[in-house]
Amino acid sequence: MNQLKQAAAEAILAKINALTDSADLSAADIVGMFEYPPDPKMGDLAFPCFKLAKTLRQAPPKIAASLSDGLSIPGISRVDVAGGYLNMFTDKSGMAANTVNTILEKKETYGANDEGVGKTVVLDYSSPNVAKPFHIGHLGTTVIGHSLKKLHAFCGYDCVGINHLGDWGTQFGKMIVAYKRWGDRATVEAGECDALVDLYVKFHEEAEKDPTLNDEARAVFTAMEHGEPEYMELWKWIIDISLREYEKTYKQLGITFDSYAGESFYTDKMPAVVDELKQKDIMVIDDGASIVDLSEYNMPPCLILKRDGSTLYPARDIAAALYRKKTYNFDKCIYVTSSGQSLHFAQWFKVLELMGYEWAKDQLVHVPYGTVSIDGGKLSTRSGNVVLLRDLFNQAIEKVAAIMEEKNPNLEGKEQIAESVGVSAIIFYYLSSGRIRDINFIMEDALSFEGNTGPYAQYTYARSCSIVSKAQAAGMTDLHAPVDLTGTALTEEENALVKTLALFPDKVAQALHESEPSVITRYILDVCADFNRFYHDIQILSCEDETLRTFRVKLTLAVKYVLGTAFDLICIGKNEKI
């Protein structure tokens, strides 16, 4: 479809230039104006003429009529005028051959573009608070962030994934106080993060009865900031235990990071930020605290230092951004966090601008996502109201394993496949909605294997693999040779599937520009729906017409490539047999 739009854009631009010498438009501008008609009966591609009214000084319907006169576009069989629109109908057989041939030629790279070639993007995501196990609330930043990394890499960017661990702060004072009062090494080593959470919850329970525990925790953290050896050794031990746990989850998700530089990494870099703010007269004292006044920008003040002189999160984030810019010279730095932190990011982004770093305005990007609740209840580690990811994954894996045992008991590698499909089911469920929407996580819906779910998509992919394997076993070996459909009429099901496959490059570009992985998830469901309709209604391997049989197998192979690539982009597994 991209090639078709480019050809149509060049033809339309030539017509516009013939009508006026002041259009000042490029083919890229025209390409960006195309739309897809809501009803296939209206055409395959539409060009709205409304934006040209001012330039051409004519009403859109008249512009459409003028542009359509003698308009000839390779691959377009008919152009209709409908009000201010040019509705274009493709040469179905030609489009089918071109689309399938392109996919078979590009294979796993079909849909990619070169937007990011020569550019670097830093992505800050996942970033759990150390000493707490992964729960469902961590899933958003982790899978959205890694999907965005995959999308950027697919479009040519050099990507740096950073896990900005929450490995510093007063919570470690609380952990150490709790450990020294109620814990022991053997219990913590055996229970890992669960044991650490028990101590954390215990601290808050006891602190409600004895508030002086909070003072004790603050004193311990102050000692940590001054490098007290015993506390620093305990701190490193707690981090090691946490990372061992996190790596298990990251392995299940297929996620790796390029850096684990967390909050503690920037401790010695914050004084320079504070000094710079002072030197540039940006920071003022307000009721003993040091702030940057942002009232001119309709934001509350950005707090830099507490009354006691200790730094707050904005100072740490500014230090991290400056370090990353110097280290990676990024063109874009993306932060994937809850929408509840939107104000925080807007504030310190503006502070960096006020410090004179112009790149902060365009290159720092906050990608927010909605909150997760469990049956309407807010998640809280302190109260213990959490659903751990490992428990959620285990439930999904067990359910998949039971279904596989019933339907395909002799399948090799059932355990690995069940894990892949089960974990993917959770990811797919989460990424099915727009990222900014709040999610009320209902276990039954997440683990359902009916309807528009991850397992349904996985089974569809496995079905495409099975058809291709059977065709190869039957002697159809040259499946990547170009398709020639000259004079061949295709069915409605075939044309619909081809049209959907042709949209993949557009969907990739849309997902990237909107930082929205759900665009890919919804697209996967569209491909699955069209392919399953094609599979159920059309003969593939049993088709007697050799040209059609060959095309249909190659169309199925194209589906396999597109689904496989789309799965990769949203971090879900591919299984050729289920």
Describe the structure.
The chain has about 575 residues and is α/β, with parallel strands linked by helices. It is about 55% helix and about 10% strand. The chain has helices spanning about 1-20, 25-30, 55, 60-70, 90-105, 140-155, 170-180, 185-210, 210-225, 230-255, 270-280, 315-330, 340-355, 360-365, 390-405, 415-430, 445, 455-475, 490-500, 505-515, 520-535, 545-570; strands at about 45-50, 75-80, 85-90, 120-125, 160, 285, 290, 300-305, 330-340, 365-370, 370-375, 375-380, 440. Strand 4, helix 6 and strand 5 form a beta-alpha-beta unit. Helix 18 packs across helix 21 (about 520-535).
What's the short version?
This protein is an alpha/beta fold. It contains 22 helices and 13 strands.
Protein topology:
Blueprint: H1 2-19, H2 27-31, E1 45-48, H3 53-56, H4 60-68, E2 76-82, E3 85-90, H5 92-106, E4 120-124, H6 139-154, E5 158-162, H7 170-182, H8 185-209, H9 212-225, H10 229-253, H11 270-279, E6 284-286, E7 289-292, E8 302-305, H12 313-328, E9 332-338, H13 342-354, H14 359-363, E10 364-369, E11 372-374, E12 377-378, H15 389-407, H16 414-431, E13 439-441, H17 443-446, H18 454-473, H19 492-502, H20 504-514, H21 518-537, H22 546-569
Parallel strand pairs: 4-5, 4-9, 9-10, 11-13
Antiparallel strand pairs: 1-3, 2-3, 6-7, 7-8, 11-12
